[in-house]
Task: inverse folding
C-alpha cells in the first residue's frame, strides 16, 4: 500500500499544537484538556496532509490491534449483505481478528465520523463495501491504506474484490444455448442508467457484455431486448407481457435479476404458458426467491460470502493489488428445457397452447 510522506510533526505544525498533543488526539487518548476546535484542527490537518500513523513504528510499541474496519453504505440491512459480512467475519475469526462494522446509509457526515472513529482505534486495515456493485468515491482518509474495496471499484484504482458479472452473463446464456435455444432468446432488464453510469451499477453492462459475447460465439441472433425502469417484479411482469405481444414469442428469457424473473413467471402463468415447457427462464443473483419459485429458477449466484472472505484475506496477507474477480456459479433448477416446437404461426402469441 502507499507510503505517505507526512509525519506526525507535520500534522502538529499544521494544527498549531505540540507533537505529543497531536499524537494523543489522533490515538484517541486525549482527555478534556484540548478544545473541540483543537481536535478538529488535528483531524483536518491529518486529512489534508494524507497522514496515517506508521503501522510498522507503532507495532514496535504495541502489538497490532487485530481489528479490521468494515465500512459500507447499506450493506448490513440487506440479505446479500449478510453474506458479505459472514464471509468477512469467518475469515477474520480464523485469523484471530475482530471485525468492527459501520453502516453509513449514504450519509457523508456520518461516514466521516465512523471512519475517524475506526482509524482512531488503529485498525489493521479497512474493507470499504457497497451493496450494489458500483464505482465509489473513497474518502480521503482511507486512500493511504491498507484498504480493500468490496463489491466496488474506485477512480483511484484501489485494490478491490468484484463478482465476475461478465462471466455470469456468458454462463446464463450458454445454459440456454446448450439446451438448443438460439435465435429466439430475449433479455429482460435493459436499463440505460444502470448500463452507462458506473456509480449506479457495474453489473448491468458486464452481464450484457457476457450475454452478447456468448450469442456471438455461436453466431446466434441478436436477442430481443426489453428495457425496464428498475429491476423489480412489476417491471419483469410488464416486460414479459410486452414480449408475449410480439409476433414470435421467445423460447427463452434471460432476466437481469431474480426479481425480474419473478415478475416474468407471473406474466407467463397469466397467459397460460408454462416454465420451462413453453418458455425457459434463467437469471442472476440467487435471491432466496429463486429456490421458492415453482419450478425453481436457474440463476447465476452472487458469490458474496466468498467475496467477503477474499477481501479479508487480501487485506491481512498484504497482497491486495488490482482487481480480484470472483467467479459466479450456476444454480441449476427446473426453469430451463429444450425449446418446444413452436407449432403453427397463430400459436406464437400468448394464451394456452
Result:
Amino acid at each position: 500500500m502507499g507510503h505517505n510522506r507526512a509525519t506526525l510533526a507535520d500534522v502538529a505544525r499544521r494544527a498549531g499544537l505540540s507533537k505529543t498533543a497531536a499524537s494523543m488526539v489522533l490515538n484517541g487518548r486525549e482527555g478534556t484538556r484540548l478544545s473541540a476546535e483543537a481536535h478538529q484542527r488535528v483531524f483536518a490537518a491529518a486529512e489534508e496532509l494524507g497522514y496515517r500513523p506508521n503501522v510498522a513504528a507503532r507495532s514496535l510499541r504495541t502489538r497490532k490491534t487485530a481489528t479490521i474496519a468494515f465500512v459500507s453504505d447499506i450493506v448490513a440491512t440487506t440479505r446479500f449483505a449478510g453474506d458479505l459480512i459472514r464471509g468477512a467475519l469467518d475469515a477474520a475469526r480464523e485469523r484471530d481478528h475482530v471485525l468492527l462494522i459501520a453502516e453509513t446509509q449514504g450519509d457523508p457526515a456520518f461516514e466521516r465520523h465512523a471512519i475517524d472513529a475506526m482509524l482512531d482505534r488503529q485498525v489493521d486495515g479497512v474493507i470499504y463495501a457497497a451493496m450494489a456493485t458500483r464505482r465509489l468515491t473513497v474518502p480521503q482518509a482511507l486512500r493511504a491504506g491498507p484498504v480493500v474495496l468490496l463489491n466496488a471499484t474506485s477512480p483511484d484504482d484501489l485494490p478491490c474484490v468484484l463478482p465476475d458479472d461478465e462471466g455470469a452473463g456468458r454462463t446464463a446464456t450458454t445454459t440456454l444455448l446448450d439446451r438448443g435455444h438460439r435465435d429466439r432468446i430475449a433479455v429482460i432488464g435493459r436499463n440505460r442508467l444502470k448500463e452507462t453510469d458506473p456509480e449506479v451499477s457495474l453489473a448491468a453492462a458486464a452481464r450484457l457484455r457476457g450475454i452478447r459475447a456468448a450469442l456471438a460465439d455461436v453466431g446466434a441472433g441478436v436477442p430481443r431486448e426489453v428495457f425496464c425502469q428498475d429491476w423489480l417484479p412489476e417491471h419483469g411482469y410488464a416486460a414479459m407481457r410486452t414480449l408475449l405481444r410480439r409476433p414470435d414469442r421467445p423460447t427463452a428469457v434471460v432476466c437481469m435479476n431474480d426479481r425480474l424473473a419473478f415478475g416474468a413467471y407471473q406474466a407467463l402463468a397469466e397467459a397460460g404458458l408454462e416454465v420451462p415447457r413453453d418458455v425457459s427462464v434463467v437469471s442472476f443473483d440467487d435471491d432466496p426467491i429463486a429456490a421458492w419459485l415453482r419450478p425453481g429458477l436457474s440463476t447465476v449466484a452472487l458469490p458474496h460470502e466468498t467475496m467477503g472472505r477474499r477481501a479479508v484475506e487480501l487485506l491481512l496477507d498484504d497482497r491486495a493489488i488490482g482487481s480480484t474477480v470472483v467467479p459466479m456459479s450456476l444454480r441449476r433448477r427446473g426453469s430451463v428445457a429444450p425449446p418446444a416446437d413452436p407449432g403453427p404461426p397463430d400459436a406464437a402469441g400468448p394464451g394456452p397452447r
Notes: Residues 1-51 form a domain with the 434 Repressor (Amino-terminal Domain) fold (CATH 1.10.260.40). The first strand starts at residue 67 and ends at 72.
